[in-house]
């Protein structure tokens, strides 16, 4: 880590701190783009209050965090409630540092892998190969992309528990890159207990850990079993803490059934407010399949040689298609994109994606204001904007995927070849 | 799936062919798009392309109930008017509180007084006091969960505005009638407000428990009714009514639901009083496109200022549908025996509107909230006018896309040549490439500085310390604010000398700014269509025509021309020009130099008013001044400035 990087950590910490003490922090906290029923700080406070008064917060319909967060937050709120913004900011900065360390190891690893496979590459492909200098540049870009991303700043100032999720994910990536199996599985299991969808990430984790072992299949199965056991014991531990299994319905049940149709930047709420009741289950499971395992197998087979890329893609997928997405999730996925810097030249929709993000980020709050406060626009306006936002995300995702495939192809076959050649999709 | 996953790997040959075409015609293409946006809007003046107004909300049942109000209410209104005129002889500069209080109590309303204080933010902190009186008629059949507001601005005899004395007697007579009815399902709140819009703002703030104690201390209310469904503001100049004029534009250009407008129009026509938006005594020919276009623009002109033209406009911020009925008196007031008949008609209109609103089961949510009215029975809806804004603002986005294509293409050209070269040559090219690559940090600095100047201008004009300092120096607030803005203006004029950016960086900055400008214009147009439209009309062509040129190749004449055009679209200039033309058209007989002078003063006043306004009533646009045209200052300043920097390189 160089001094410049440390400066930028301080600078972004300062920005976050200044914003959190300014008068805008409250309105940021209340924005639906930032706070969802799953992660809002208001509900955390509510749950801690109920818990302090010997009421099971999971009996009601308000609290949806897991028991660990309930314990820590109620402890913090009781003993040092004034420090919470600072703790959250520190967690966010630590996230960036873990992203830095993790992506550094990943890019070094990728570089080594490339040197090993150099003989299989075509001639004249040095230009699109990873260079030694990249292993220093890439982690800096990744960390900066997290530190100065407006989405992650808003997420942090809004004091959402997505900051904790991002922290856990960054630990997972860090430990994954350093082959620290126990830490990786533990952080992923805690995150899964909080956020259901991230269970799909065990696939790239298992793929990555099996790379160094002799019998790959057994290693993969062992990793998955270890993950399941950890998850199960976490739930048992939670049961010990709460003395009931109510929390499962309040977290997993709430996420899967999408019970609260508060507007957010995702695709669920509008669809399910319009839905006829007897079709609800059908579409609910279709949507949930789409956001979890529908793409899992095909993507796994395509990218089994690069588990880190698979991880990036899966993370982006679940952050777009989950039932309560927020900008914090998207900020985390965006921070992993610089990891694939060398494939940028193969991407073709950069401008459209950037423009769409810009336009929707400004128009979204505008039409939400018109709808909610001015009482003149309606849900369709806001949904229109969020639909474009999601489309931009999906464009980015598909573009990234195809660019990666194109790059692989070019590494094998060279850059200059017959112009009429086309890459077939099947 | 072609868009998502273009499977071709190398398309530079095909691409460059496209790019060459695009590069050649980019400006004319964007300009055509802009023009088609303008034409689209002009086309809306044709009769065939507008829609006829209709009722979407069935619960309103306009005019279905039998009118029960009798002649005795009209007599009462007349008597009350005579009493009030008598009171006004002794209360020259304030409301006759005790009289009004007694009358309202006598009628049987639950009457309260509401005190408020305005601490004027500038000029060393003077404070003004005011008092509203309001009476609530409790609905006999429900538990005060919903309410309708009938608001009456009171103007003392020495007020500068047109006298609207008969309003209070008319509404009191109606209240007396309404109290005897038992069908009300919503409370009726009769508010007599003091100090024009200030009183209304204070009443609403107090009603919704909003606290803004530093500037407008709105005090507390002793009695409340429920959720306000709708509000009608009355300004009746005389019982001898010629026609009713409707005012609908609210704060920040918000409009009431079209159903409410239609309701008032329909009920007034039923009583034989011609009523409409911006009603003129003369008849209107719906086939006349020029006349239609004039009407469209006249509504947009008022809306774009973002300042409410009546007390109704302040309700919109709370999501309450509201409009003002202004009854204009007959010019040639020949003594007429028919006055009683006219009072009756007015009372029936009030009764009809109240009963229709009383029928409502849900808040207004049908019909249109975004529209432009052409005449009392024709309008243009959002779906019809939005494409024109889309094309105008979109042309900026497209231009920035084209610039991006061109600049990335020139990179690609280099790339394809590099491939065949040996390793050493490749290194040389890489070095050269890094020279020609974009210096993001430098561009970021200019970008941040431009925005900083904009925010600075916003902050500095509102800062209390600075205004206190002005007060000590004995500088009038208008002049003080003008000096501040001038200071920022000069700062932005000399700033480009401190930045030197290369051609490529300039290109990149231009791409970003065009994107930002296009997005901002779209967002402004969503909030206030008219403002967005006029801003587009002025700003877009300038930004399309302006291209970044290399400093070495540009000649002096173009350079000066560019600077001049940028001065022309500077918000201060625009505001001045607008005020000047408006004063010229209304005071054509005066000498030019006088008008120059006068409009400069009016501009300063306008800017000051808008600063005060933005503090008091949370006007979204800082410089959406009273007679001043644009809110562009805040929104476009950083961008205008950024472009200025770009083009003075």
From TrEMBL, chain A:
Organism, by scientific name, is: Clunio marinus
A GO CC annotation given for this chain: GPI-anchor transamidase complex
Q: Which family does it belong to?
A: Belongs to the PIGU family.
Membrane-crossing segments per the record: 82-101, 151-174, 217-237, 282-303, 309-339, 351-371, 383-405
**Protein keywords:** Endoplasmic reticulum, GPI-anchor biosynthesis, Membrane, Signal, Transmembrane, Transmembrane helix
Q: List the pathway annotation.
A: Glycolipid biosynthesis; glycosylphosphatidylinositol-anchor biosynthesis
Q: Where is the signal peptide?
A: 1-20
Q: Which GO BP terms, alphabetically?
A: attachment of GPI anchor to protein; GPI anchor biosynthetic process
Q: What is this protein called?
A: CLUMA_CG014056, isoform A
The organism's superkingdom is given as Eukaryota
Tell where it localizes: Endoplasmic reticulum membrane
Q: Which InterPro entries match?
A: PIG-U (IPR009600)
Q: Which Pfam families match?
A: PIG-U (PF06728)
Automatic annotation (TrEMBL), chain B:
A single cellular component GO annotation = GPI-anchor transamidase complex
From its record, what is one biological process in GO terms? attachment of GPI anchor to protein
Locate the transmembrane regions by residue number: 25-46, 440-460, 481-501, 521-546, 567-587, 607-624
- Keyword Membrane, does the record have it? yes
Any keyword Membrane? yes
Question: Where does the source fall among the domains of life?
Answer: Eukaryota
Give the Pfam families listed for this entry.
Gaa1 (PF04114)
Q: Which keywords belong to this entry?
A: Membrane, Transmembrane, Transmembrane helix
Q: What is this protein called?
A: CLUMA_CG006533, isoform A
Organism the protein comes from: Clunio marinus
| Taxonomic path | Eukaryota, Metazoa, Ecdysozoa, Arthropoda, Hexapoda
């Amino acid at each position: 880590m160089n001094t410049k990087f440390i400066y930028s950590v301080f600078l972004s910490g300062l920005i976050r701190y200044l914003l959190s003490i300014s008068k805008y922090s409250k309105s940021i906290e209340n924005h639906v783009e930032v706070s969802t029923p799953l992660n809002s700080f208001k509900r955390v406070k509510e749950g801690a209050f109920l818990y302090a008064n010997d009421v099971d917060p999971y009996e009601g319909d308000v609290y949806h965090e897991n028991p660990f967060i309930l314990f820590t937050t109620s402890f913090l709120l009781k003993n040092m409630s004034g420090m919470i913004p600072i703790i959250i900011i520190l967690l966010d900065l630590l996230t960036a540092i873990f992203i830095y360390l993790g992506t550094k190891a990943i890019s070094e690893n990728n570089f080594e892998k490339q040197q090993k496979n150099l003989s299989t590459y075509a001639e004249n492909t040095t230009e699109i190969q990873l260079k030694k200098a990249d292993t220093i540049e890439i982690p800096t870009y990744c960390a900066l992309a997290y530190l100065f991303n407006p989405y992650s700043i808003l997420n942090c100032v809004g004091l959402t528990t997505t900051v904790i999720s991002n922290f856990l994910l960054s630990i997972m990536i860090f430990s994954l890159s350093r082959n620290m199996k126990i830490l990786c599985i533990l952080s992923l299991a805690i995150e899964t207990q909080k956020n259901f969808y991230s269970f799909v990430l065990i696939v790239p984790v298992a793929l990555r850990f099996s790379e160094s072992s002799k019998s790959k299949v057994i290693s993969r199965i062992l990793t998955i079993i270890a993950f399941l056991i950890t998850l199960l014991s976490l739930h048992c531990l939670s049961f010990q803490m709460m003395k009931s299994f109510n929390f499962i319905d309040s977290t997993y049940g709430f996420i899967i059934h999408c019970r609260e149709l508060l507007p957010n930047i995702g695709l669920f709420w509008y669809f399910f407010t319009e839905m006829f009741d007897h079709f609800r289950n059908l579409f609910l499971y279709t949507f949930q399949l789409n956001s979890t395992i529908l793409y899992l197998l095909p993507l796994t087979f395509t990218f089994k040689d690069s588990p880190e890329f698979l991880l990036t893609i899966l993370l982006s997928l679940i952050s777009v298609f989950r039932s309560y997405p927020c900008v914090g999730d998207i900020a985390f996925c965006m921070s992993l994109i610089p990891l694939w810097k060398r494939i940028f030249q193969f991407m073709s929709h950069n401008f459209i994606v950037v423009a769409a993000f810009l336009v929707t980020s400004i128009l979204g709050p505008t039409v939400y204001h018109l709808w909610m406060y001015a009482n003149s626009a309606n849900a369709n306006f806001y949904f229109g904007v969020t639909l474009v936002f999601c489309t931009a995300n999906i464009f980015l995702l598909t573009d990234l995927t195809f660019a990666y495939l194109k790059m692989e192809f070019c590494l094998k076959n060279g850059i200059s070849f017959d112009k009429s050649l086309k890459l077939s999709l099947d | 799936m072609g868009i998502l996953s273009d499977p071709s790997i190398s398309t530079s040959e095909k691409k460059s062919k496209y790019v060459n075409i695009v590069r050649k015609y980019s400006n004319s293409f964007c300009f055509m798009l802009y023009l088609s946006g303008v034409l689209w809007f002009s086309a809306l003046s044709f009769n065939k392309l507008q829609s006829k107004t209709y009722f979407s909300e069935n619960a309103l049942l306009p005019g279905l109930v039998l009118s029960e109000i009798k002649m005795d209410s009209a007599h009462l209104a007349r008597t009350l008017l005579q009493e009030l005129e008598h009171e006004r002889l002794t209360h020259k500069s304030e409301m006759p509180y005790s009289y009004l209080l007694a009358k309202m109590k006598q009628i049987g309303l639950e009457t309260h007084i509401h005190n408020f204080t305005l601490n004027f933010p500038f000029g060393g902190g003077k404070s003004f006091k005011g008092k509203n009186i309001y009476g609530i008629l409790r609905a006999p059949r429900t538990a005060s969960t919903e309410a309708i507001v009938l608001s009456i601005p009171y103007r003392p005899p020495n007020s500068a505005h047109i006298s609207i004395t008969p309003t209070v007697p008319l509404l009191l007579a109606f209240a007396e009638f309404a109290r005897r009815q038992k069908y009300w399902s919503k409370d009726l709140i009769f508010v007599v407000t003091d100090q024009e819009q200030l009183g209304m703002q204070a009443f609403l703030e107090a009603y919704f428990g909003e606290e803004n104690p530093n500037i407008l201390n709105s005090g507390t209310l002793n009695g409340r009714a429920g959720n306000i469904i709708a509000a009608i503001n009355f300004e009746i100049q005389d019982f001898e009514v010629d026609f009713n004029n409707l005012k609908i534009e609210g704060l920040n250009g918000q409009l009431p639901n079209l159903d409410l407008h239609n309701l008032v129009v329909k009920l007034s026509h039923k009583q034989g009083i011609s009523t409409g938006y911006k009603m003129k005594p003369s008849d209107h020919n719906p086939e006349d496109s020029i006349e239609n276009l004039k009407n469209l623009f006249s509504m947009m002109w008022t809306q774009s200022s973002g300042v409410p033209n009546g007390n109704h406009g302040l309700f919109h911020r709370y999501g309450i549908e509201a409009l003002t009925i202004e009854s204009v008196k007959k010019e040639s007031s020949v003594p007429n025996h028919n006055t009683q008949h006219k009072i009756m008609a007015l009372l029936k209109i009030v009764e009809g509107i109240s009963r229709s609103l009383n029928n409502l089961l849900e808040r207004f949510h049908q019909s249109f909230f975004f529209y432009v009215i052409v005449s009392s029975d024709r309008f243009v809806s959002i779906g019809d006018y939005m494409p024109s804004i889309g094309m105008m603002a979109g042309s900026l986005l497209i231009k920035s896309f084209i610039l991006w294509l061109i600049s990335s293409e020139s990179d690609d050209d280099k790339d394809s040549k590099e491939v065949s070269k040996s390793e050493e040559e490749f290194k040389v090219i890489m070095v050269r490439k890094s020279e020609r690559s974009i210096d993001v940090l430098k561009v970021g600095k200019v970008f941040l500085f431009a925005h900083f100047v904009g925010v600075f201008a916003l902050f500095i004009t509102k800062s209390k310390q600075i205004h206190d300092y002005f007060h000590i120096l004995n500088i009038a607030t208008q002049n003080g604010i003008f000096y501040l803005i001038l200071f920022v203006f000069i700062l932005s004029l000399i700033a480009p000398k401190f930045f030197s950016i290369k051609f490529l960086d300039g290109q990149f900055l231009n791409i970003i700014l065009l994107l930002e400008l296009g997005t901002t214009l779209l967002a402004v147009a969503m909030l206030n269509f008219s403002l967005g439209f006029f801003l587009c009309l002025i700003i877009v062509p300038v930004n399309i025509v302006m291209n970044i040129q290399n400093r070495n190749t540009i000649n002096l004449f173009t350079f000066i021309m560019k600077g001049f055009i940028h001065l022309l679209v500077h918000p201060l200039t625009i505001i001045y020009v607008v005020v000047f033309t408006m004063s010229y058209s209304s005071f054509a007989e005066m000498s030019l130099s006088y008008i120059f002078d006068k409009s400069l003063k009016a501009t300063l006043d306008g800017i000051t008013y808008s600063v005060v306004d933005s503090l008091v009533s949370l006007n979204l646009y800082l410089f959406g001044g009273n007679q001043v045209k644009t809110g562009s200052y805040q929104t476009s300043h950083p961008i205008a400035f950024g472009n200025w920097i770009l083009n003075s390189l």
